[in-house]
């Protein structure tokens, strides 16, 4: 028995040693040639691998990424005091939180000559006036994705939130619709449909939105934040409320795998939520200069375009336009025209009492039926 | 007796089927020549090739294996001790201490440990913090199994050994440990799988710039479940299988020798 | 220090107390440091105000005057108890957890029994086969169930074919409470099998032989010998399934429909949605207390006092 214990322990230690040495030797290889490591806290799949390689070559450093899939994950981790991140790429409302918490560093714009590439209409946002701290990276729109063939067959409208809120339409697609599992996003869609602002926090308007949601809920299959991409592409879902870059992916997947239908997406005419992600320096970062170098690198039209070509995200970079694939640049749902753009709205953070009220409402929405 | 056996066999077989049908899908689709995990298109090894070219993923796998091995090792030792202690010395508060981490929602444990590591211990997050966190929630699982094994066991064997002049250590080595071995092994297996799978606590306690498998996989899944993720899973199972088989080979050899003595 | 203690034990020094603390000390210290302290932090958290921008409001007001509320409060507890909604979520979660536990028990018991009754050399392999699927990633396994339960899957067509033969309207399997239970059972099945197996394995077969000699049939032997002896295993297994199910949020998130919110989701929402750490802590404390109470109660019921000594 002792021998057994000893052998297991030995095996454990051996494998651990093997793994550790395997690891460190490889780390040393990279560490020897490139000493500096830039730590980027980024969204999943939000930078093209080629771009990473190119940046590493140009800066003679290593770009190390940690991922989050929700602003809130990132905020929670930082709020507890996590440190060591040079750069973060939060959405507008999360950015305003970080700025208010005072955990970001002001930018040195003299190090960012490429800042001139950014379309002025994406600068000077309410969450960061004069772009003291942040530089736009990319944006997405929350919209409706659909199976074009089915929608035409059933004669349903695609340019209105009524598709996911009106029982007369929902009847035909019962159980084939998902909406986002996000308090703010779904409420915003409902508020927009009712003709209010996405940032409306009026109790009565919220109740109205709640009733609208509860009336439509029996027809929805689920609240889904990710699985709708695949389910749309496979054909199990016909309509989904989701993000433009996810719909881009679903459409691409459907096309690549030779589906008989097309996945299309459009911004409802009542208006929708625009999420502008920006790069910002975290105060705990140890490489401010390298961070500026990275930001400037990403502001280069070609590098910025790579992101759009990969993920289908909207691009605020004017010099990127020429490098973006024509079918993406022509897509109104990714690059909305001026008129449509004015109907998009960025989310603003709620205060803590509003947040708790909304959370309660959300629980009620999930638990109850009308 | 016969009829009962048939009944037992079919019930057990359906339980195995329940366990393995989703797994077959995972493995089969890892060889599927289609980006969508939807229908069979053709055989390919390209997902495995892609995987072996993904340096970040390989590092993550190594890190996670180290974490899982270390955490399950610590948790098994501490958990076995806790199980023994709960059974023998009727300490009132120990069961509460052991059950509570199991009962605590993962996310709370994750945030609580993060606050503790950063604001009380002032620890730099890294492998160590993940190992500690995983050990914390695995101890309970091991202890509960070990105690279940000990419960209702005849105390008189231990007493007899003691009466014959065996020291507590000798009693433990020669009598208790062989008796609870299946529970210890089961606990270790459970800790290993819990550790390698855990996303929430790992997310909160991981350090900067160290890829770990659950987060890497989660990242990929967020975008869409690609066959590459299936390939990782398949390889991980294969690796676990090999490790366990080696361990049990060593074990059965040792066991036979012990029993002959 | 340690070698000295060990040699004391080796030399047979009468030191029950030393052994006792040698055995219970390390896990105790570890849990006190790495579990109790963080728990106390969270207990304190539940008494604080959430920060205006997430995190926590300060306990003492910093020198610069802010509008933020600070100090300690019981408001989250008030909020929790003044609303029936949260009790409903608790109740619903307990129903799902009990159902999952029961199904796990029904599936795991024959499996554990079969492993125990197999030849010794096969046993380890069979246990291994139970655990092996869990070396693959948890989310991958859940997503595999999405494929199986999807509306166009073979399984769905089969079930609906059977149902329509009986004149029942077709059902959707995915995104339903049914899918949630399937997922929960799938993820937690080994937690039931392992404790059951380790318990059943130690039973003395002579007991069953004796019962047979006394004329007990297979069912009687099971009900009067095997089952009561296995109660500690049943209890441990149930605890290890019931409790994690309560905190689980990924399964309802992925497989659940529009109404599948469990306490785990609610707690997750407070930390990763609403940035309301105090309320999240309060919910967790309520959950932990409820779970400990239930466990203590169950432990009392499952205490193997009436069981004949093996």
Structure overview:
The complex is a heterotrimer of chains A (370), B (261) and C (310). Chain A has helices at residues 2-33, 49-59, 71-79, 92-101, 148-154, 162-165, 167-170, 183-193, 203-216, 228-234, 244-256, 288-298, 301-311, 326-329, 338-341, 352-367; strands spanning 37-43, 62-68, 87-88, 104-105, 134-147, 177-179, 222-223, 239-243, 263-266, 272-282, 344-346. Chain A is globular, with a radius of gyration of 23 Å. The termini of chain A are far apart. With 370 residues, chain A is an alpha/beta fold. By secondary structure, chain B is mainly alpha-helical. The two termini of chain B are 36 Å apart. Chain C is built from 13 helices and no strands. In chain C, α3 (75-81) packs across α13 (277-301) and α4 (84-117) packs across α8 (177-200). The longest helix of chain C has 34 residues, at 84-117. Residues 8-14 and 305-310 of chain C have low confidence and may be disordered.
Question: Which key features would you list for this structure?
Answer:
heterotrimer; A: 370 residues; eleven-stranded mixed β-sheet; B: 261 residues; mainly alpha
